[in-house]
Amino acid sequence: xxxxxxxxxxxxxxxxxxxxxxxxxxxxxxxxxxxxxxxxxxxxxxxxxxxxxxxxxxxxxxxxxxxxxxxxxxxxxxxxxxxxxxxxxxxxxxxxxxxxxxxxxxxxxxxxxxxxxxxxxxxxxxxxxxxxxxxxxxxxxxxxxxxxxxxxxxxxxxxxxxxxxxxxxxxxxxxxxxxxxxxxxxxxxxxxxxxxxxxxxxxxxxxxxxxxxxxxxxxxxxxxxxxxxxxxxxxxxxxxxxxxxxxxxxxxxxxxxxxxxxxxxxxxxxxxxxxxxxxxxxxxxxxxxxxxxxxxxxxxxxxxxxxxxxxxxxxxxxxxxxxxxx
Length: 326
Fold this sequence. Notes:
It is a single chain. By secondary structure, this protein is an alpha/beta fold. 36% of the residues lie in helices and 10% in strands. The chain is built from ten helices and nine strands. The record marks 167 as: Important for catalytic activity.
């Protein structure tokens, strides 16, 4: 999965998207002007590759790429202050998914299942809660709303990024806790929601008491713990392999190979076209075939453009506004 530079496809973009090793496109704020433009862009992408997955980060709070013409969603931590938090989280998941699907995309990489330990600035209010059981309850409701709208859900960042203080965008974070400590706390939402989640994104965090590699490059984490212990059978997406936390594996070719060898079904290479091209070349050389699991991430509903007249839309928006969340 890679990205493009602007709000429309260039000839170079089209050529790259035609490569069978490219399985997805992720949109960033620079790719987005307003809902109609996003829909037109997605249609142009599908004209080149109808099978391509189109994704975005539309978590809410400070991580929301679709803004103009879209509801400004709350940070997930804000739900914890309300007595009807579970129902509000469900309404928000449905509303977010409806807007993203109506714009022509397949899914948002959401929700965050990290815990807010008051240690990680990069996670912070993106997390639902500090308490693992409560975080799992709110995330389950949010996922239920996404599924009701027709969108697959991706839990991130396995097995938990909330304890490590460094930001994996610019550094290589470490979490010195034991596997048992992580099992008893940060792993709990992933364990609870493993049967419900369609996909998981591992953290670019090293847990040295478990493995010397970041979780996204670790067979111990992805194969033994996530697949084996938790019984997860869905898609595994790497986090962005251009982030500093991924550089321990080498150049983009080495990173994509390490991620797929560890058990990822798809590697993300974003904001670095040369790295994306290097990763594509590596996959061509390795003759990698697409994972059949990826098909579950396609949009399950076609949302009509008049969705804002839908009584459920009006009810969900009214509930969130009544709680002061939007």
